[in-house]
Amino acid sequence: MIGRFISRAAVFMLSLFAFAVMFLFGAVQEATAAARPFRIYMITWREMTDVERGFQNYMAEKNIPVEYIMRHANKDPSKLAGFVEEIRRLKPDLVFTWGTTVTLGVVGRYDDKNKAKYIRDIPVVFGLVADPVGVKIVPDLASSKSNVTGVYHMASAEAIITGINSYRRFSKLGMLYNGLEMNSVAYAGDIRKLSTKMGFKLFERKFRIGADGKPSPEGVIDLLRDLKRSGAEWLLLGPDSYSTSIGDILGPALREVGLPVFATTEGNMFPSGVLAGLISKYYSVGQFSAYKAEQILVQKQPAAAVPVETLKRFSYIIRMEVAKELKFYPPVSMFNYAEIL
Amino acid sequence: MDADYIRKLNIRLVGIVTLALVLVLSVIMVVSLQLAEKYVVPELQAKALTQGHALTTLIGQPLSYNIGVSELVGIDDLFKEVIKDNPEIGFLAISDNHGKTLFHSGDSLVNYNAYINSRELLIETGKLAAAGAKSRSLSFEKHHIASLPIFSADHSIVALLHIGVKSSYVQNVLNELLQDLAVILVVSLFVTYEVLYFILGGKLSRQFEMLCRTIDSVIKNDFSQRVYHAGRDELGRVVSLTDSVINNVNQRYAGLLATAQQAGLLPPGKTPDDVSEAVGIRKKIRFGESGNGTQSCNNFLGTLRAPLFLSLMAEDLSRSFIPLFTKQLYEPVAGVSDEFVMGLPIMVFMLLVALLQPVLAGWSERAGRKHSLLVGMSIGCFAFAMTANAFSVYDLLIWRALSGVSWAIVFVASQGLILDKATADTRTRDIAFFVGVIMVSSLCGPPIGGILADNLGFRATFYVSAGLLLAAVMVLLSFLPGDTADSHLESRKLNLRDIMSVLSNRRFLVLILTAAIPAKIALIGICYYLIPLYITSMGDSSAMTGRVLMLYGLVMVIGVPIAAGISDRMSKRKEFVGVGLLLSGISGTLILLGNNVYISIGIVLVLGLAQAISIAPQTAFIADICNEEITLLGEGTVYGVYRLMERIGNFIGPLLAALMLNFLGFKGTFCAIGLLLFVSGMVFIAVFRQSDNCQVLAADAKGVEQ
């Protein structure tokens, strides 16, 4: 009784304290905001996604005045050099980059000698990079020791495999990815390492490369049939941008072959044949990136002092329509925590 | 007047109180069992229903996507998990509306198939559901079955979930309760005796004793004794009357002598004393005031008893679960086994107690006994409060070390206080009192601690310990008189030369190595370390550990005085020690007979019996084999060395057990310790038999020479 009273009193005092702190922060923010809106240079890979929406809404909710300069690469890496030029000229307060390719185009690898090619003086916050250490955007998650920080969005490879196993135990896993995407290749490597450790067999297939040297959707269905023939019980879609971009071709092919698919990013949940996934919501990634930007812009922390992090919670998504089509139902206990689409 | 009057009064009082307590507690036991039966069963059924409702809701989710009941995936895993988490649930099953059992986990359904798959049950449950009831239940011999409807997407009943609650579980709960109540009965008996001693053993019995002694002296024509009691109660009035009668006689005698002197009846040059000496009155009758009569009636023992009991109890409360509490805090460290870490707090405690006791003896004498008791108890209070808040094994070790310091101080200071105040004729009795308090606390502490830990949690129990020590400090402050410099014994500090010289007695050394240390290894290693881990490893509670450990205390409390008496009368001390060691050995090997809680009870009972048989004879045996050293260095020094050496075993016990447990498992470790004791016993018997033969031979040889 007394214990409950004390804990209630403690909660009350804490909330009062938190309220006072928030009030103070708010006052400080308003004071600084009145001067001039922050200018954020925002680069996406294709178009505006939930990541940017999450980012902008967070800033708006926090009453942080921001002026956005929006640029889209339209899936063309060659455009990135132009953006870097423009950033130098416009001198924004912060740069936001979407995905691995854009981020590498703007900040380069941390061990790249040719520093003049990249932005190294203006703080850069990235969102939606699968493996920032693996692709050498930062040397260490705790601190980039440079002008870069951001949010990565992937659950660990172990968590993904455990996630698949809790839907249905498997011993053979297939993977299909774009061999030209750095993070897809790195991710396949991670899964390969795990396959020996966790005792399953991995079958890898890469999208075919067209005459133009770019990946092509041609023969996707054959690749999938081939995987199924070799005994793969699941198909794992890594953080592969190309798979996302050909969702309208990949989806029907997956449904035709009838292979259960597990996705690792929200983007890869798009192809209609995907059965389940363990993902971070793009919107949340955007919000978390905005929080990092807030630490840099409002609280005046150097980007090197802001750690690179991922979300604390991931969402387990199940697409019931696909489960029924495949007659491949999730275990009952999963209904306790999974989000059913 | 019969000098045994007080003892008889005591026995009668204790008898009446015991009878009254047993009666009252038995009634309470019966009533609470009835109440429990009345409330436990519905409570368990309600819990099972809540569980069932959660399950049907969960199972309803996939059904709402039009998945068929028979197509459900992962039901078996789900059921197994629920059964594992809810020990009262015997089985879970789902039957469909065609009378077929689709899923089943747990106890066999052989006797229930007809019931759970019956059309009637389905219809009945449907009706009940329509009327707003959640389930239909029926009790069978071994299970109480509750059946809940599972609805499809269109709200029709497609299946039934059956939950079988074990009838035996209710019985288990009631048995547990009965055992707890029995423990409380035993403990409250002992606590009542403590309180009785506090009051009776105090002023009352001392004053009766003094009164008896004084009247006895008067009968023997000795008018020099007085009772001296300032109280205004009935006893006080009797005492002051007695004293005034004696004073009166003395005054009359003095008056007689004075009158004789004034009347010039005395020969010249002689004092009245000379005359009475000459006439022989002095030899027949004693007058005046003798120094012996001014004994203080202040009963320090009765006053010390309560705080000492409280502080020992504080430590004994956690005996049954210290290794488990350590396990909870423990985060694996590479290269260190779990078993070793679980034994560490006991080791640290014992090590500090062993090392500090000789050092503290001198300090507590200089600082004053009351002062040191207060310091010791306050440290203990702080240490327990911190233990309750321990966040890792590392800080737990610090707090346990502090508890060790506290325990050592309280032990040394109480022992010192008793020895200070004891006179030659009360010494044995006072020491027995001290040992008695230790044993009673070790009997009451673990079971009460176990019950507390099961119901309030480990941390709360440590707070209770801290509270007990706080109470001890309070009692001490308000009742124990301040320190006086009335030490009867000039205590000597142990030094290395003394230790070496005592140890150079080979028979003493053999006794230490084959009896004293192994006995402690068995006691601490088995009772304090292995038993708590073993019992909980089989899924039993801390309360069960406490109950089992209480048996050890019980055997000791009853057995030690009996064994001591018999061994003294038969003067077969070494035989008793030898048999005790062999029995200890056998206790460990009892583990080979099976793997259940009864085996652990057997081990503790036999070990208790073994220790009860050997503990007093072993101490007395020292005097037999160390005659020379006792004459040279004094009894205190020799026994000091003996206690110091013995305590090495307290430290080695948990260390050895923890190391062996890692490699040998429970069976191997119990056996290994048993074997160690058995071999020690054999060596002890062999050595002392041989040395006796040598002595007999030597004596024979002397006889021949003469």
Structural description of this entry:
The complex is a heterodimer of chains A (341) and B (706). Chain A is α/β, with parallel strands linked by helices and 341 residues long. Chain A is 41% helix and 18% strand. Chain A contains 11 helices and 14 strands. Chain A has a 7-stranded mixed sheet with strand order 7-6-10-11-12-13-14, sandwiched between helices. In chain A, strands 2-1-3-4-5 form a 5-stranded parallel sheet. In chain A, helix 2 (50-61) crosses helix 10 (282-297). Residues 1-7, 9-14 and 29-34 of chain A have low confidence and may be disordered. Chain B is mainly α. Helices cover 75% and strands 5% of the residues of chain B. Chain B has 22 helices and 5 strands. Chain B has a 5-stranded antiparallel sheet. The two termini of chain B are 53 Å apart. Mean pLDDT of chain B is 82; it is low at 291-298 and 696-706. The chains are: A alpha/beta (341), B mainly alpha (706).
